[in-house]
Amino acid sequence: MKFLSLSTAEQGCSLAIIENESVICEEYWTTKKTHSKRLLKMIEHMLEKRAGLALNDIEVFVAAKGPGSFTGLRIGISVIKGLAYAIEKPVMGVSSLDGIAFRFVHSAIPVCAMMDAKRDEVYCAIYLFEHGILISKTKEKVVSPQDAIEMTEGPTLFVGSGSKAYKKIFSKKQSIQSLVMNHLIL
Description:
186 residues; alpha/beta; five-stranded mixed sheet; 10 strands; globular
């Protein structure tokens, strides 16, 4: 099956075409223009020039359903639903945080996927994978970066735009954990 997957949950936009479990092509861009200014051209270019496909070749359309920017999500979901409706194909919604976390499906430690929610908050959830399979996921929340740290136990991989926006806070947590782990190992 061929999937066209789109996320407009943040200022950046990501698009991927996937066949079965393999990525055919993917693209990420960020600009000050709204998603509506570039999105359809981006999809058309990726289908025709990069993947060598027509819109009718896509069997399932996937859109990030949040959390994230209300305007960005609204644009992305509308475009995906419109394209799918035009060629009578199914649509699926995927959590924006799941999209981030599943890039780290082979992590040996818990993954805290987070997005910058602005105003000193992050959207986050903690994922535990084992041999590439999701074992558990906490409820998605909007919390302060410090509260996100307090949700974790032991070494944790902090990923996503929230981890970048509040890098100093998460780096400090990881440095303390490393010192504790090194002390315990010695």
